[in-house]
Write a structure and sequence with these properties.
2 domains; 19 helices; single chain; two-stranded antiparallel ribbon; Rossmann fold; globular
Length: 453
C-alpha cells in the first residue's frame, strides 16, 4: 500500500516535477511526496496500474477545518482524477441526504440551476466557490458521457428532519397520479415550521414534538408501502430506493434528538452516516469518494479530550465492514486562515451544532478566522521542520513512533473556540492511512446568499 494514495497529490503536479523525497520527521527519515497546490498537472502513469489502489471501494478524505480553501481544492481535484482515471462514479459529502438529492437531480436530469442547488446546502460551510466549481465540473462531465457513465452526488448525514421530507413531497408534487394532498397532510407538522420553530420544538424538555414525529414516520411508512407497487412500475428501482431512503433518513434525524451523552450522540450520528454511505455504495454499485471532517473519516476514536474522544467515528464502521476496501486520509496544517462560526459564547455545549443547523445563526456569524503556528502542536511542528510547504505521507508504510504515539495538532469543526481548544490529541496511525500536510492555509471563498438568488 506504500504508493496507494500518492495519487491524491500528483493531480497538482507536472509529471516531471512529482518526486518522492526523503526528509527527517521526528527522529526518523521518511519518504514524502511534496507538491505545489496551485500547479495543475498529471498523475504518473505507473499509478494507474497500482494493484493496491484498485482494492479501494470507498476513498475517504477529511479536513482539519470546515472552511479551508486548500483542503477543498485538493479534494475536488482528487475526485476529478478518480472519476476520469479510476472508474469512480459516486461522490458523497457530510451534508443532509435530502438536500443533496436536489444536486443529484441537477447533475443527472438538469432540474434546477447551480445557484438553486447551492442554496439548498443547509450546511453553509459548503456554500463556497470551491464546491460550486466541483459541482459544475460534475455537471459538465455528465453532459459529455452516456447515462451508464454518469456520476452521482449524495449527502450521507442525518441531522435534518426537514429536507428528506421536502424532497419527497416535491417529487410527489410532480406526479399527478400520486395523492399529493395526502402526503402534504402527513408531513405538514415538519414542513410548515421554520428552522427556529423546529429547533425549539425538538429541544423542548417536554418532548411532545417527538410523539408527533413518530406519528409522521409511521404515516410516511404506510404511505410508501401503499404506493410501492405504483412507484416500482413507473420509476427505476434506484429512484424508488432513494425515495425510501428519504423516509429512513428522516427517522435517523428524529432519533438523533433522543437524550444521549455527547459520546453517544457522536457515535449514533457516525454509525448512521456509515450506514448511509454503505447503502449508497451498494445502490450505485460503484467506487465512492467521501468528503467529511477528519473526525468522521478517521479509522478509530480519538484519544484524550478531543471532540470525538471515546466515540466511534464513521470511518471505524466503514473499516470494519470493508477492511482494505476503505482508505482514509486526514489533513493537518501549521497555520493560516479558514472560516468558522465564532459566536460561541451564546451556543456552548453539546447542542452547539444543532443550534447552528436549525437556527441558521451561523449564516450571519460565519467569518474569517486564523491560527498561528503553535508550540503545543507536536505533530504539526515535526512536519513543519521539514521546510516542505505541502506534502503527502503514507502512514501505513512508516514505522516512525511519532505516528503511533500521542501527538497534538489543530482540529476545528464548524465553530472556532480559540487556539488552545483547537489543539487536540491524535495517534495518527490509528486514525488514518495517510496524511496531507499544508503549512499555510487560506479561507475558502464564501458565496454570499444574495449572489445565489
Amino acid at each position: 500500500m506504500k504508493y496507494i494514495v500518492a495519487v491524491t497529490l500528483s493531480v497538482f503536479l507536472f509529471l516531471d516535477s512529482f518526486a518522492q523525497i526523503t526528509v527527517t520527521i521526528g527522529s526518523d527519515e521518511e519518504e514524502i511526496y511534496p507538491f505545489e497546490i496551485n500547479q495543475p498537472g498529471l498523475y504518473s502513469e505507473w499509478m494507474k496500474n497500482d494493484t493496491a489502489f484498485s482494492e479501494i471501494e470507498i476513498f475517504g478524505m477529511g479536513e482539519a477545518t470546515h472552511g479551508t480553501k486548500e483542503f477543498f481544492d485538493i479534494k475536488a481535484k482528487t475526485f476529478e482524477y478518480l472519476v476520469t482515471n479510476c472508474n469512480y462514479k459516486v461522490f458523497g459529502i457530510e451534508a443532509s441526504y435530502g438536500e443533496c438529492n436536489y444536486i443529484n437531480d441537477y447533475l443527472n436530469s438538469g432540474i434546477g440551476s447551480i445557484d438553486s442547488v447551492m442554496l439548498n446546502f443547509s450546511f453553509i460551510m459548503w456554500r463556497t466557490q470551491e464546491v460550486k466549481e466541483l459541482i459544475l465540473w460534475m455537471k459538465n462531465y455528465n453532459q459529455q458521457c452516456p447515462d451508464s457513465a454518469k456520476i452521482s452526488f449524495y449527502g450521507f448525514d442525518m441531522q435534518d428532519i426537514y429536507f428528506p421530507l421536502k424532497y419527497l413531497i416535491d417529487f410527489v408534487k410532480s406526479d399527478t397520479l400520486l395523492n399529493y394532498q395526502e402526503l402534504a397532510t402527513i408531513v405538514r407538522p415538519v414542513i410548515s415550521k421554520s428552522s427556529p420553530q423546529r429547533y425549539a420544538a425538538l429541544s423542548s424538555k417536554e418532548s411532545k414534538y417527538q410523539d408527533t414525529l413518530r406519528a409522521v414516520h409511521s404515516l410516511l411508512t404506510n404511505w410508501m408501502n401503499k404506493n410501492e407497487s405504483y412507484l416500482a412500475k413507473k420509476y427505476p428501482n434506484k429512484k424508488c430506493i432513494q425515495l425510501r431512503m428519504c423516509v429512513d433518513n428522516f427517522e435517523q434525524a428524529k432519533n438523533g434528538w433522543q437524550e444521549r451523552t455527547f459520546k453517544e450522540n457522536n457515535t449514533y450520528r457516525d454509525s448512521c452516516m456509515a450506514y448511509n454511505v454503505l447503502r449508497i455504495h451498494a445502490l450505485e454499485n460503484s467506487k465512492m469518494f467521501i468528503w467529511a471532517h477528519n473526525g468522521h473519516v478517521a479509522l478509530s476514536q480519538y484519544p484524550g479530550e478531543s471532540p470525538y474522544a471515546k466515540s466511534k467515528p464513521m470511518g471505524s464502521f466503514l473499516k470494519r465492514e470493508l477492511g482494505s476496501g476503505y482508505y482514509s486520509i486526514g489533513f493537518i496544517f501549521n497555520e493560516g486562515y479558514f472560516q468558522a462560526y465564532t459566536d460561541v459564547e451564546k451556543n456552548k455545549g453539546d447542542g452547539v451544532f444543532k443550534k447552528l443547523f436549525y437556527k441558521r445563526q451561523y449564516q450571519v456569524m460565519w467569518s474569517e478566522c486564523s491560527v498561528p503556528a503553535y508550540e503545543k502542536n507536536t505533530l504539526t511542528n515535526a512536519f513543519s521542520a521539514t521546510n516542505v510547504d505541502a506534502f503527502f505521507i503514507d502512514i501505513n508504510a512508516s514505522g516512525n513512533s511519532i505516528f503511533s504515539t500521542t501527538q497534538f495538532t489543530y482540529w476545528l469543526g464548524a465553530a472556532f473556540y480559540g487556539i488552545e481548544k483547537s489543539s487536540v490529541e491524535i495517534i495518527a496511525k490509528k486514525q488514518f492511512d495517510g496524511l496531507i500536510y499544508i503549512n499555510n492555509t487560506t479561507r475558502a471563498v464564501p458565496l454570499d446568499k444574495s449572489s445565489l438568488e
